[in-house]
Amino acid sequence: MDTCTALDKYTSIEDELPVDAGAPFDRGDIILRTADNVDFHFHKLLLSLASSFFSNMFSLPQPGSLDDAADRTKHGLPIIPVTEKSVVLRKLLSFCSPVYDTDVPVLENLDIVMFVLDAADKYDMKRVGIFIVRMITAPRFLEKEPMRVFAIACRYRSEPETLVAARYMLRFAVWEPAYVSELDFISGSDFQRLVKYHASCGQAMTQLTRLWSTYPLPSLDCKFCRKKGVSRLSLKEYQDSVIEALRIRPSVESLLNPEWIDSMVKRAGSCIGCRERAPRMFAEYAKELVFPIMAIILEIRLDIDFRR
Fold this sequence. Notes:
By secondary structure, the chain is mainly alpha-helical. It has 14 helices and 5 strands. A 5-stranded mixed beta sheet has the order 1-3-2-5-4. A hairpin with a 2-residue loop joins strand 4 and strand 5. Helix 2 packs across helix 3. The protein is elongated. It starts with a helix and ends in a 10-residue tail after the last helix.
């Protein structure tokens, strides 16, 4: 889009007549007008309770009838222009509603999350910000963009959500997650501590060597394989390969990686039947290892200072 087109679009928005946001934002004693000319009726009391910014604003002397600002009214209600778009303000005000904790507004993606969090920051809506950050560890966010979830939670110094994201990212090698812009809002020290946490969890996987008798590795060969001769993969090599896989990615999901499983059965010289059974056997084995691996990880501290 060239400059002229962008300017025309901006001008057309400015020239459009304001429209009402509709229910449930059609009643109140104040109007918030968005950047795209949508009017949201809302209640001063609810805004004051949610936001110290608006509480302070409403405590100031209001303009009299002779002031220029007195003309900024609609249906006798004062209009407050805001810079947010209507899609963002609708969600922000929904979190200021008395029923937001039972009728939770939908946040479709992390882009919307960031827009709403930025607005909550701007208007000093601390409780709203805390509630939203607690939502970002939902699977639809965490499974798709764990690094963004980590960075957002860390930026807002929310320890439980930061730790959940850090643990989820153990299923990746430390170099695998791509850069995300949210990392710009946390310190290099915070990111370095994430890397250190990942490395510490990986190093701690050597503790599993004491548990081989309790959790014996699934067999990679059968009688048919053994008839062909001695396996090319010794038990010690097999165990070391498992530990190395978990050191790089300290999560049971490492043992479900098809490429890793395929490399193991090839090294073992497994027959076709064993190769076909291997994914199922490792899936069952991974279920058994969940608890000992998690017990090890729970002992590792994410050394981030969460004090504001």
